[in-house]
TrEMBL record:
<comment type="similarity">
    <text>Belongs to the D-isomer specific 2-hydroxyacid dehydrogenase family.</text>
</comment>
<protein>
    <submittedName>
        <fullName>2-hydroxyacid dehydrogenase</fullName>
        <ecNumber>1.1.1.28</ecNumber>
    </submittedName>
</protein>
<feature type="domain" description="D-isomer specific 2-hydroxyacid dehydrogenase catalytic">
    <location>
        <begin position="8"/>
        <end position="327"/>
    </location>
</feature>
<dbReference type="InterPro" id="IPR058205">
    <property type="entry name" value="D-LDH-like"/>
</dbReference>
<dbReference type="InterPro" id="IPR029752">
    <property type="entry name" value="D-isomer_DH_CS1"/>
</dbReference>
<dbReference type="InterPro" id="IPR006140">
    <property type="entry name" value="D-isomer_DH_NAD-bd"/>
</dbReference>
<dbReference type="InterPro" id="IPR036291">
    <property type="entry name" value="NAD(P)-bd_dom_sf"/>
</dbReference>
<dbReference type="InterPro" id="IPR006139">
    <property type="entry name" value="D-isomer_2_OHA_DH_cat_dom"/>
</dbReference>
<keyword id="KW-0520">NAD</keyword>
<dbReference type="InterPro" id="IPR029753">
    <property type="entry name" value="D-isomer_DH_CS"/>
</dbReference>
<keyword id="KW-0560">Oxidoreductase</keyword>
<feature type="domain" description="D-isomer specific 2-hydroxyacid dehydrogenase NAD-binding">
    <location>
        <begin position="110"/>
        <end position="296"/>
    </location>
</feature>
<dbReference type="GO" id="GO:0008720">
    <property type="term" value="F:D-lactate dehydrogenase (NAD+) activity"/>
</dbReference>
<dbReference type="Pfam" id="PF00389">
    <property type="entry name" value="2-Hacid_dh"/>
</dbReference>
<dbReference type="Pfam" id="PF02826">
    <property type="entry name" value="2-Hacid_dh_C"/>
</dbReference>
């Protein structure tokens, strides 16, 4: 059987081809799954997709009409998939329920440190042989407060690093993490966490109840000189509200690896095209903002685990097995 994999990055391709070797043939495409590209999948029982694939009702209907019966998504998030429609069409859906939490946690810290110490601005200056320090002053993180929204495996890994910096830890989640407790984390209401934290980081899934978790009111609750980091899902932050606060001169730094309207933008080269997203166009130029293109997960370790789990999901499907990764079971 040939598996059709959409949205495969150049670095990812050899890992996918090696993982499937000896099991199934795999055809890797660099294009993402959309309404326009969905017809390519005709005749393929199994397709694999990336986190920015469009798996809404029209795309799923096209896949089903072409004979697709299984979607193996190469990500933990699945807010891009209409699971109800998939079930109605008889399409099995599986995801990668977990992979290296360190990849995302470490990158979140890279964003936090970069905006705190003005690393991007400093690098740009030195490329022009401008070695002044004006405007590059940061702050010690030791002794300051880190607020972790979402204390699962990634939030815990972030908290461990924060503990190493000597930071006070505040947490917010539906369930407490005993390891975070042992690190000295105090669980508090979200409003208290936002009001007291010097660094706020997001590690929660995107669901209807968490959409715009950081909205206009939440942003106003935060300290004027706080740092905000989001390496989870773009929809957790009301970006338009964030831009308004940045225009008012607030926040030491903002590090975003995700953006709520990133589909159709991230993972693509748009450098020669006019910027059509007005919100993103206003956000990126702020000197205290660093936006990266959803790369927090992108390490050899994490991607290797994602690919291996995807292969196992495909093998489970063909063998009629069901695992914790299945979102819509085989009918």
């Amino acid at each position: 059987m040939e598996i059709l994999a959409f949205g495969v990055q150049a670095d990812e391709r050899p890992l996918i081809e090696r993982a499937f070797r000896g099991h199934h043939e795999v055809r890797c495409l660099d294009v993402f799954l959309t309404e326009d590209t969905a017809p390519i999948a005709a005749g393929h029982e199994i397709v694999s997709t990336s986190v920015n694939a469009d798996l809404g009702a029209p795309v799923l209907a096209t896949l089903a009409s072409g004979g697709t019966r299984m979607v193996a998504q190469r990500s933990t998030g699945f807010n891009n998939i209409d699971l109800g429609v998939a079930e109605r069409l008889g399409i099995t859906v599986a995801r990668v329920s977990s992979y290296s939490p360190y990849a995302v946690a470490e990158f979140a810290w890279a964003l936090a440190l970069a905006v705190n110490r003005r690393v991007v601005r400093a690098s740009t200056r030195t490329r022009d042989f401008d070695f002044r320090l004006d405007g590059l002053m940061g702050r010690d993180l030791n002794g300051r407060t880190a607020g972790v929204l979402g204390t699962g495996r990634i939030g815990e890994a972030f908290a461990r690093i924060a503990h190493g910096f000597g930071m006070r830890l505040l947490g917010w989640d539906v369930a407490e993490n005993s390891v975070c407790r042992q690190l000295g984390m105090a669980y508090v209401p979200k409003e208290q966490l936002l009001a007291e934290s010097d660094l706020v980081t997001l590690h929660v899934p995107l669901m209807p109840e968490t959409r715009h978790l950081i909205d206009a009111d939440a942003l106003k609750t935060m300290k004027d000189d706080a740092i905000l980091v989001n390496s989870s899902r773009g929809g957790l932050v009301d970006t338009a509200a964030l831009v308004r606060e940045l225009r008012a001169g607030r926040f030491t730094g903002v590090g975003l690896d995700v953006y709520e309207a990133e589909a159709g933008l991230f993972f693509l080269d748009k450098s020669l095209q006019p910027v059509e997203d007005d919100t993103l166009a206003r956000l990126v130029p702020f000197p205290n903002v660093l936006v990266t293109s959803h790369q927090a997960y992108y390490t050899e370790d994490a991607v290797g685990q994602i690919v291996d789990t995807t292969v196992r999901n495909v093998l489970d499907y063909t063998a009629g097995r069901r695992s914790e990764n299945v979102l819509v079971p085989r009918s």
